[in-house]
# Entry
Amino acid sequence: MSTQRFGVGALVVAVLASVLTFAPAANANASAPAANIQCRSNSKVFARGGATPASRSVTVRLCVERDDVTLRAWGSVSMGAKSGTADIVYHLVVNVRLEQNDADMAAVSCDATAWTNFDDAGGQRFTCQTQDRYSSETGGWTADGNVSYDLIGDGKNDLTWSLAGSPAIS
# Structure
């Protein structure tokens, strides 16, 4: 009787072993799918000149995204707490570009003057996004941009803050 149990047990082990042996193995050479979104953050403190001090930190996070054949770029703009009550800028405009191999494919400009001068504790965020672009071409897609601004009381005219672009996606 114990021989019979051993025989059945051995048969079960043999069947399991054959199932496990013939189960498809994971391909060790398979790579993970490429990232669909890549971003990079840029930060700067804007401080007005003159007798009435005021300043605010601004962060622009440039991102590029691919969803199948749909591509877009955006700048997510966040403001830190404002120090002082005076206005800081005459104007502050965020410019975002969707690029492929450094060629402009879509662009947008968003006026952030009111956000920069608004008296608050910070934490506000808005997004400046290009129109969608449809392409099956792969490689070299990035978000890039700059911020055009004019600080109050600094004695200079328009200045440009060149932003570090996002890493590329396919």
